[in-house]
């Protein structure tokens, strides 16, 4: 079904992948993994013609709406502009009928273009070649370009195309929009307005067509249709055998959330500007617009210049796939928005941001595009308001970040009810929004990681200190004193391993909270000493002197779970006493979550089984606090009990396996991480791609095989390429210098334009250089 080599376009080897057969029962796969976008909007790659089982999605980042008081806010599914019904001699074209040959649907990631082509034979035996192309512009964030070419191969045909804007869509049945005005200008430009019901975000959607026959412009008198939540144009054309009819559709999306309308907004003005823009786009046409888009992507790939020379072409393809989707999903244009756990490629997780961003995706940006990393952290800075509200509502101080976040001020938006409980038949309650609290220290950690790697003092002064200090205040108020054991604990939480709910002293949560408070103490002292004016302001705002005394008093008495006599750190107070069962069947599962076919969550809570990396994640984030031996012992204990049912798991295990010199296992885990979306499992991506896992793929390569780590403010490199690889090169930003790193099995070369001396720790030895470094192993 999926082919990873492109035999018809050798120039796209390792840049594209192809669906070789249309499978109506597995449409979600390519809709997601071939989705297009530009950070402003994401367009799922549903086919032009309609099929049962397809999901049409167009999401505009940040346009969250709450459908009703019993639901949480989510990204609304905007009107569809891609749908098109084509009739050949009156017969509706569909791959479900007739015969199809030479089918190929490809995502060309180099140019971010979706193509689909095939020869379709209708009931009357007429063969027609179809070729579709589509892009979501990176040159103009509001623009979508589409093209369809139709060539009858052996007989003349009469073609009719019905194409428009369809707002009869929703999010799994929820309708987020009030219907607005619809109008067709000059029998050409369709304009549809829709407004979200609660957040009152206006969407202005435009679409317009142009045609040619064998390259000659064609003017076609349309039939116009306006219905409820829908409008369309109908065009007819007679095409002779061998002639090529081309239909171009240019569409655009503007919303009142767009940054340029943040302060001065007038719907009438936005409509006029957008209408003028689509008119210009129509004049320019697909090819010229695509060229601008292609150049914008060429700049992206110049910036993120990765190379892997491997025995397997798939490896570089997988890294490019990860980077492609990271760019497509990231709102690099607007710091009021985060990254959804499924990017903008599906309804899954409602467009909400989780710790996935800070822990799995942010490192990619810290080291490859620090300006974007800063914007993502600024989004969390704006989220302080919601985080403070959440803390207050729960009886705590400071800032308690929401487990799931949407618009910065929304606060907690985790839904409360989830999948079926196979024992009770009720919906399982999702506790994460209440008690999965490690997100707060994950964000503080990310701020620290960012500033250590970039040295961005300005960000710290404006946002970073406040975030770290206020999150530390939350933790101090969250700690519970255990009189009997004379220690502070954190009880009743969910750690990263979501198969263990309501646990006490999850090691990850406790250590990370401790880290957060420790950091706050250091920054408090630093600010007091070196930036008295900023200190005075923050002290006044956050009552820091009192908070500092509290941190000092509590930190040393905080319980940090220690290894037992076997060297195993308990994941929480009861994990090691839980039942052991034979997990062989689940470890060998083809799809995730099969445990829940046999047990409900209550029962899973009683078993020593983990959904995902938990303590392993702690070892990775705070790696120099634990000895290599301790980490390895724990890896051996927890890995067999970890089902990797979350896509966030493989990459962490890969990096640790690499640290333990198990290069073969590390490579296998890298492949598994890479195959979550790009692999051949036809349903793994139905609800959207897995953004954290894609960040994780980059981390496997750079933090894993290249051994990049930031430790105690220094950059470490400890390269260990897999046997399968010959060479790895990638860009890396360190304290505002851009380095080009080039690794082979026996050498490391680094070059940089920065003229200052740089000191890096290479395989444990401090090594200084200016401009160039070449080391042979
Ligand atoms: C994982 C979380 C993750 C979330 C969103 C869950 O299945 O357990 O760690 O944050 O998905 O990706």
From TrEMBL:
<protein>
    <submittedName>
        <fullName>Glycoside hydrolase family 65 protein</fullName>
    </submittedName>
</protein>
<dbReference type="InterPro" id="IPR012341">
    <property type="entry name" value="6hp_glycosidase-like_sf"/>
</dbReference>
<feature type="binding site">
    <location>
        <begin position="611"/>
        <end position="612"/>
    </location>
    <ligand>
        <name>substrate</name>
    </ligand>
</feature>
<dbReference type="Pfam" id="PF03636">
    <property type="entry name" value="Glyco_hydro_65N"/>
</dbReference>
<dbReference type="InterPro" id="IPR037018">
    <property type="entry name" value="GH65_N"/>
</dbReference>
<dbReference type="GO" id="GO:0016757">
    <property type="term" value="F:glycosyltransferase activity"/>
</dbReference>
<comment type="similarity">
    <text>Belongs to the glycosyl hydrolase 65 family.</text>
</comment>
<feature type="domain" description="Glycoside hydrolase family 65 central catalytic">
    <location>
        <begin position="320"/>
        <end position="699"/>
    </location>
</feature>
<keyword id="KW-0328">Glycosyltransferase</keyword>
<feature type="binding site">
    <location>
        <begin position="355"/>
        <end position="356"/>
    </location>
    <ligand>
        <name>substrate</name>
    </ligand>
</feature>
<dbReference type="InterPro" id="IPR005196">
    <property type="entry name" value="Glyco_hydro_65_N"/>
</dbReference>
<dbReference type="InterPro" id="IPR017045">
    <property type="entry name" value="Malt_Pase/Glycosyl_Hdrlase"/>
</dbReference>
<dbReference type="Pfam" id="PF03633">
    <property type="entry name" value="Glyco_hydro_65C"/>
</dbReference>
<keyword id="KW-0378">Hydrolase</keyword>
<dbReference type="InterPro" id="IPR005195">
    <property type="entry name" value="Glyco_hydro_65_M"/>
</dbReference>
<dbReference type="Pfam" id="PF03632">
    <property type="entry name" value="Glyco_hydro_65m"/>
</dbReference>
<dbReference type="InterPro" id="IPR008928">
    <property type="entry name" value="6-hairpin_glycosidase_sf"/>
</dbReference>
<dbReference type="GO" id="GO:0005975">
    <property type="term" value="P:carbohydrate metabolic process"/>
</dbReference>
<feature type="domain" description="Glycoside hydrolase family 65 N-terminal">
    <location>
        <begin position="18"/>
        <end position="257"/>
    </location>
</feature>
<feature type="domain" description="Glycoside hydrolase family 65 C-terminal">
    <location>
        <begin position="709"/>
        <end position="765"/>
    </location>
</feature>
<dbReference type="GO" id="GO:0030246">
    <property type="term" value="F:carbohydrate binding"/>
</dbReference>
<dbReference type="GO" id="GO:0004553">
    <property type="term" value="F:hydrolase activity, hydrolyzing O-glycosyl compounds"/>
</dbReference>
<dbReference type="InterPro" id="IPR005194">
    <property type="entry name" value="Glyco_hydro_65_C"/>
</dbReference>
<dbReference type="InterPro" id="IPR011013">
    <property type="entry name" value="Gal_mutarotase_sf_dom"/>
</dbReference>
<keyword id="KW-0808">Transferase</keyword>
<feature type="active site" description="Proton donor">
    <location>
        <position position="498"/>
    </location>
</feature>
